Inverse folding.
C-alpha cells in the first residue's frame, strides 16, 4: 500500500477519528449533558454516600499492587468492582482517577493477569472505555508533570526514570499485549484511542530526548514501545486503513517501525512537509496546543533519524497560523512561537524563512503582518515601562540580563497571555531582541523578490520606526498607548479579502503605508536633532541605525525595476538613516 497516499486521506481520518474517540469522550459528554438532571443525585451521593465510597476505595486500594500469584480471595470481584467505577455517571471523577492510578501501579509491576481477565469479561464498549480512561490518566500525569516543572522552575526536561515515565512505557507494552490477542482486540485498542495517545506522546517526547540526564539508552525504550504499538496494530490487515490514515503516521514518521513501500519515486522533502501540514488539520485542538506549547518552551526533537526537527517545527508554525483551518487561540500561539523564534535566533532562523517562502503571496503578507503586530505590542510595553520608570528603565546595555518590572497578568490568565507576557518581559528594551528581528527581516527580504514585496505590503518598514521609539518619540499612530486588549489599530486588509479565522475572529492585518510614512516623516526630522540624539547612548543609536540601513537596503535597494513605486519611500528612509 502506498502509505503516503493513505496518510493524506484527511477526510477518511476525520470520520474515523470521531469513531475511535467515542469511548474516551463518552464519559465527559454524558456528564455534561446530564449535569442539571444529575446534580441533585450527585449532591445526595456526596452527602450520604461519600463516606461509604471513600471507605470502599480504601479497601480496594489496599489490594494494589499485587503479584499474579496473589492468594487474595475474591480478587476477580474486586477487579470487577474497580472497573465499575469507570462507568459513565457512576462515580465522581476523583474516584475514577484514583482507580485508574491503582491500575497504572499494577501495570507498572508487569503483573496484569487478573486485569486482562476482568477486561475480557466486559462488553466491547466497556472495555474500550476502561482502556481509554487508563491511557488518558497516564498521559495526563506525564503532561501535568511537565507543566508543573515548567511553571515552578522553568525546567523543560523530563527523565524517563521518573515514575510517570516508567508507567507510560509499561502501559504501552500492556496495550501491545492486548493488541496481539486478536483482530477484535486490536479494534478495541484502536477504539480506545491508542493512536491519539501516540500523537500526545509525540508532542511531549522532546522533553525526554533533550534531557541532559537521559542518553538515547534511556529514552529509546519509550520510542521503541511506540514503534512496537504501530507494528502490533499493523498485524491486523483489516485495520491498516484506519491505522495508516491517522495523522500520527504522517506527523511522526520516526515512530514507523518499517519504511513505506513506494510504487513510485520517493517523495521530496517539500512534499512530505505538505502532507504533514495537511495532517495537522485533522488533529484535535488540544493536541495542537500541546505541540505549540512544547515549541514555545524551547523543546524540539533531537531523536529524529533525519535530523529535521527544526524544519518540521518551522513548517508547523507556518501551517498553524492558517486562520481558515484553526481557532484563534491556535493561530495566536503559532504567531507568538514564531516571534519568539525570531527574537532569539535572528538571521539564524533560516528554516523559518524556508517555510514562509513556500506559501502563497497573500499568506506571506499575512505571516509578516502577524509578526509585526505582535512586535508593536511588545514595543508599546517598552514605551509604557520607560514612561513609568524612566527613560533607561528595562535596558541592559551589557546584555547580561534585562532589568524587568513586574507586569500584572490579566485576571483571566491563560497559556497565550502567560507566555506572551513572559516573552515581552524578557525582551522588553533588550537590544538583542530588536537586532534579531531586524536581521531576520533583512535576511528574508534578500531571499526572493516576491517575499520582499510581500514584506513591504505587510508594513515591515515600521521596524525602522520602532527602533527609535522612546519617551520623546512615541509614534502614536503605530504604538497606541491607549490600545485595549482585543482592539486593533487602524490597519488595512492583509490582501486576503474578507478573511476571518475559523471561529469568526479577525486575523492580523497589515499596517497602512500612510501610517508608516506619516511617522517616518516625523522621525526624519528628529533623527537630525541633537536633542533627540542625546536621549540615546551613542553606541546604541549607531547600532540601531546601521541595522536599519541594512533592512532598508534589503527592502528598498535600487534593484533596477521598472515602474518603481517605492522611489519616494526609499528617499524618505534613507534620509532618516543618513
Amino acid at each position: 500500500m502506498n502509505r503516503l497516499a493513505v496518510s493524506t486521506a484527511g477526510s477518511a481520518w476525520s470520520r474515523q477519528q470521531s469513531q475511535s474517540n467515542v469511548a474516551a469522550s463518552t464519559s465527559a459528554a454524558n456528564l455534561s449533558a446530564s449535569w442539571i438532571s444529575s446534580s441533585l443525585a450527585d449532591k445526595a451521593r456526596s452527602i450520604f454516600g461519600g463516606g461509604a465510597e471513600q471507605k470502599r476505595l480504601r479497601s480496594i486500594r489496599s489490594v494494589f499492587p499485587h503479584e499474579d500469584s496473589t492468594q487474595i480471595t475474591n480478587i476477580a470481584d474486586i477487579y470487577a468492582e474497580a472497573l465499575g467505577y469507570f462507568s459513565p455517571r457512576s462515580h465522581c471523577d476523583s474516584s475514577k482517577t484514583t482507580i485508574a492510578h491503582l491500575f497504572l501501579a499494577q501495570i507498572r509491576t508487569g503483573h496484569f493477569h487478573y486485569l486482562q481477565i476482568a477486561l475480557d469479561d466486559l462488553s466491547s464498549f466497556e472495555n474500550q472505555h476502561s482502556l481509554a480512561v487508563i491511557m488518558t490518566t497516564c498521559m495526563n500525569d506525564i503532561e501535568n508533570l511537565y507543566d508543573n516543572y515548567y511553571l515552578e522552575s522553568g525546567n523543560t526536561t523530563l527523565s524517563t526514570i521518573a515514575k510517570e515515565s516508567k508507567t507510560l512505557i509499561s502501559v504501552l507494552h500492556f496495550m501491545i499485549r492486548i493488541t496481539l490477542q486478536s483482530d477484535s482486540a486490536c479494534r478495541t485498542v484502536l477504539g480506545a484511542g491508542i493512536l491519539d495517545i501516540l500523537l500526545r506522546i509525540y508532542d511531549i517526547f522532546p522533553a525526554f530526548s533533550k534531557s541532559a540526564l537521559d542518553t538515547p539508552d534511556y529514552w529509546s525504550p519509550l520510542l521503541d514501545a511506540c514503534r512496537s504499538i504501530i507494528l502490533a496494530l499493523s498485524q491486523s490487515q483489516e485495520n491498516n486503513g484506519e491505522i495508516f490514515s491517522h495523522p500520527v503516521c504522517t506527523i511522526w514518521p520516526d515512530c514507523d517501525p518499517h519504511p513505506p513501500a513506494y510504487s513510485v519515486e520517493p517523495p521530496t522533502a517539500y512534499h512530505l512537509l505538505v502532507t504533514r501540514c495537511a495532517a495537522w488539520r485533522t488533529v484535535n485542538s488540544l493536541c495542537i496546543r500541546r505541540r505549540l506549547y512544547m515549541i514555545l518552551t524551547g523543546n524540539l526533537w533531537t531523536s529524529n533519524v533525519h535530523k529535521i526537527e527544526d524544519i518540521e517545527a518551522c513548517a508547523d508554525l507556518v501551517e498553524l497560523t492558517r486562520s481558515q483551518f484553526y481557532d484563534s487561540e491556535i493561530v495566536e500561539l503559532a504567531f507568538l512561537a514564531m516571534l519568539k523564534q525570531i527574537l532569539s535566533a535572528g538571521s539564524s532562523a533560516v528554516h523559518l524563512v524556508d517555510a514562509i517562502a513556500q506559501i502563497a503571496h497573500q499568506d506571506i503578507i499575512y505571516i509578516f503582518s502577524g509578526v509585526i503586530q505582535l512586535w508593536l505590542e511588545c514595543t508599546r510595553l517598552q514605551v509604557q515601562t520607560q514612561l513609568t520608570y524612566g527613560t533607561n528603565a528595562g535596558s541592559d546595555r551589557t546584555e547580561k540580563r534585562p532589568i524587568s518590572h513586574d507586569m500584572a497578568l490579566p485576571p483571566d490568565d491563560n497559556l497565550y497571555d502567560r507566555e506572551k507576557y513572559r516573552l515581552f518581559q524578557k525582551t522588553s528594551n533588550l537590544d538583542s531582541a530588536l537586532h534579531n528581528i531586524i536581521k531576520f527581516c533583512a535576511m528574508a527580504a534578500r531571499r526572493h523578490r516576491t517575499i520582499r514585496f510581500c514584506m513591504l505590503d505587510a508594513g515591515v518598514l515600521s521596524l525602522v520606526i520602532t527602533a527609535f521609539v522612546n519617551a520623546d518619540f512615541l509614534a502614536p499612530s503605530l504604538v497606541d498607548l491607549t490600545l485595549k486588549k482585543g482592539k486593533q489599530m487602524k490597519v488595512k486588509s492583509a490582501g486576503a479579502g474578507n478573511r476571518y479565522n475559523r471561529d469568526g475572529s479577525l486575523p492580523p492585518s497589515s499596517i497602512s503605508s500612510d501610517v508608516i510614512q506619516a511617522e517616518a516623516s516625523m522621525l526624519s526630522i528628529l533623527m537630525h536633532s541633537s536633542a533627540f540624539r542625546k536621549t540615546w547612548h551613542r553606541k546604541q543609536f549607531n547600532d540601531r541605525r546601521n541595522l536599519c540601513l541594512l533592512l532598508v537596503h534589503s527592502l528598498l535597494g535600487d534593484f533596477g525595476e521598472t515602474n518603481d513605486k517605492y522611489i519616494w519611500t526609499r528617499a524618505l528612509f534613507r534620509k532618516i538613516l543618513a
